[in-house]
Amino acid sequence: MILRCLAEGNSVRSTSRLCDVEKRTVLNLLKTAGDCCERFMERTLRDVPVRDLQLDECWSYVLKKEGHKLPLEAKDDSIGDQYVFIGLERNSKLVVAWHLGKRNRENTSQFISKVRKATAEGIFDVSTDAWPAYTPEIDLQLSDRANHGIVVKVYDKPEETRERYSPGDFVTVEKSVGSGNPNLSRACTSHVERKNGSLRQWCRRLTRLTYAFSKKKENLRAALALHFWYYDFARIHGSLRVTPAMQAGVADHIWTLGELVGLPV
User: Fold this and answer.
1) Is the dihedral of CA 199, 204, 206, 209 positive or negative?
2) Separation between Cα atoms, residue 179 and residue 143, nearest integer Å
3) Phi-psi region of 231 (alpha: psi -120 to 50; beta: other; left: phi over 0)
4) pLDDT digits over 197-251, tens only?
5) Which end of the chain is more exposed for a tag (fewer CB within 10 A), N or C?
6) Structural domain boundaries of the chain?
7) CB neighbour list of residue 188: distance below 8 Å, 6 or more residues apart
8) 146-155 and 52-62 strand pairing
């Protein structure tokens, strides 16, 4: 029940009240389940056939935002802005890989490495935004299998002049070749951006303008691991009518949290 509450978007404190347990009990179970989910996904999501892969990053923060860090905290990567890198297969809606870290070349490289381990050999298209680190890392690690297309959505107001959380009106989409020979007519990041919306709705720590943000990076990592496992293996997707893992052929049934808890360490 504790894990179900967390997976369905409840905060740690509301979960402790609903389940009549201490907050520390909820956090301990979250970290245990998060480690289990991460190991399970790393072991299970291997050599998954993909056709259209979409990559994106979702912003969050731990303890405080980057601009509020003290001088002594400037080099502490465990606090401040954090980005959730997500790799979503367009057709099955399966999250094949994810990664938590700063938005830099090093973490982009680690994320693309996870994508390579999760995907099967064979040519597929991968669509990203214009984050500069994607192009060299995809060319370095996925050049034998991925055709890279870059998708940039243009709005009528530059980002620095927009109101907070209010994008300007959509104008057009600009597409370009990152590497290989991608089918630009199908290049798209809308599905993974929609997944970002689901992530903020179902993972309480990423809900904006609340007190539920993570105070420790390891707790955020555990919550993300639980969310992505629950999304892939335990929750029926609205348009698929099965779980993404079943649609992708990596699972033959809808998993339950009880099965997760019963997995061997």
Assistant:
1) positive
2) 8
3) alpha
4) 999 999 999 998 888 899 999 999 999 999 999 999 999 998 899 999 999 999 9
5) C
6) 2-261
7) 52, 54, 90, 127, 151
8) unpaired
Which residues lie closer than 8 Å to 13 by C-beta, 6 or more apart?
Answer: 23
Q: Are 121 and 143 in contact (CB under 8 A)?
A: no
**pLDDT tens for residues 46-91?**
999 999 999 999 999 999 999 999 999 999 999 999 999 999 999 9
Identify the pLDDT of residue 86: 98
Q: What is the pTM of this model?
A: 0.93
CB-neighbour burial class of residue 25 (10 A; exposed 0-12, middle 13-18, buried 19+): middle
Q: What is the DSSP track for 85-152?
A: EEEEETTT--EEEEEEE-SSHHHHHHHHHHHHHHBPSS-EEEEE-S-TTHHHHHHHHSTTTEEEEEEE
Report the Cα–Cα distance between both ends of the chain, in Å, rounded: 21
Return the closest-CA partner of residue 130 out of 152, 159, 158: 152
CA distances, 76 to each of 48, 58, 104, 219, 243 (Å): 35, 20, 14, 16, 38
User: For domain 2-261, is the CATH number 3.40.50.2300?
Assistant: no
